[in-house]
Design goal:
- This protein is an alpha+beta fold.
- It is built from 2 helices and 5 strands, in the order E-H-E-E-H-E-E.
- Strand 2 and strand 3 form a beta hairpin.
- The longest helix is centred in the middle third of the chain and has 13 residues.
- It starts with a strand and ends with a strand.
Length: 90
């Protein structure tokens, strides 16, 4: 099974609303690895690694986010595979 990594940048009301916590929980639920990190511009960077299908499912989830957040847009870019351990909040 081929593994891939994608970096997502999520814009909207995504800081101070538990977005990283919920993203981490969702990533672990999907069996993915990576991290969620707040950026200085108010967005959240999410790196997701795993099977193509699970990464795609996470991409769909990120478009909506948790109920506490308001996602305006999500930008994704492929990146080279990195073997992260677990899913972390940075």
């Amino acid at each position: 099974m081929e593994q891939k990594c994608v970096k997502f940048t999520v814009f909207g009301v995504v800081q101070g609303v538990g977005f990283r916590y919920h993203t981490c929980h969702q990533g672990l639920k999907f069996g993915l690895t990576g991290y969620a990190k707040n950026l200085m511009d108010g967005s959240v960077e999410v790196v997701v690694c795993g099977s193509e299908q699970k990464v795609a499912e996470m991409a769909v989830w990120l478009e909506q986010g948790p109920q506490t957040a308001t996602v305006d847009s999500v930008v994704s870019e492929p990146m080279s595979f990195k073997p992260f351990r677990g899913f972390k909040i940075l």
